[in-house]
Design brief:
The chain contains two helices and twelve strands. The protein is α+β, with helices and mostly antiparallel strands. The structure holds dinuclear copper ion.
Length: 181
């Protein structure tokens, strides 16, 4: 029971105080502004690329990635002999996230577009492309697809930015962008 119960029990039928309706209007308009800001910032802020998401079983995704590697591998790198793959320009590039690596290394061509497919084999990882500002959560059972067109050649690091256990800090990958012109 309230200390001072409203005199009229049907308080919601009382007319709104002017100050109250002013504040409700301000709050509502501010909500609209913030909503439109999200849309604006997505377009003008050069933030994350638009992506598509599909359901996929980890095995099915791994099979597609392995098929790409078998077909387009150009060399291997490092002690772990991680394959470097050059998918065709305009084609599909697959990148697997798993404990605790990004597999394989992709070699893309500057100025060409690719469909970059990301998925996880186990649990949540974060795709963070350095030094650009692209961040995508990578979940198991979901295939995230980005259309990317590299505008700069060089070596880019893929950092996992979702904590994924004891090897999280070692979960580094690489993407090469080569200029063939
Ligand atoms: Cu994968 Cu942190």
């Amino acid at each position: 029971m309230a200390i001072t119960p409203p005199e009229n029990r049907l308080w919601w039928n009382e007319p709104l105080h002017r100050m109250e309706i002013v504040w409700i209007t301000i709050a509502f308009l501010w909500g609209v502004v913030m909503f439109l800001t999200m849309v604006y910032w997505h377009i003008a802020g050069q933030q994350n690329l638009s992506n598509e998401a599909y359901r996929v079983k980890p095995d099915a995704f791994a099979a597609k990635a392995e098929a790409m590697v078998a077909r387009y591998k150009v060399r291997e790198e490092g002690d772990s002999k991680i394959p470097v793959v050059r998918p065709p320009a305009g084609g599909d590039a697959y990148l697997i996230a798993r404990l605790w690596e990004w597999w394989p290394i992709l070699e893309l061509e500057k100025g060409q577009s690719y469909r970059l497919h990301l998925s996880s084999m186990d649990w949540l990882h974060g795709f963070s492309l350095q030094p650009t500002n692209i961040n995508i959560q990578v979940h198991p059972n979901y295939e995230m697809v980005l259309t990317v067109t590299p505008t700069q050649s060089g070596e880019f690091a893929v950092v996992c930015n979702e904590f994924c256990g004891i090897g999280h800090h070692n979960m580094l990958g690489r993407i090469y962008v080569v200029d063939r012109k």
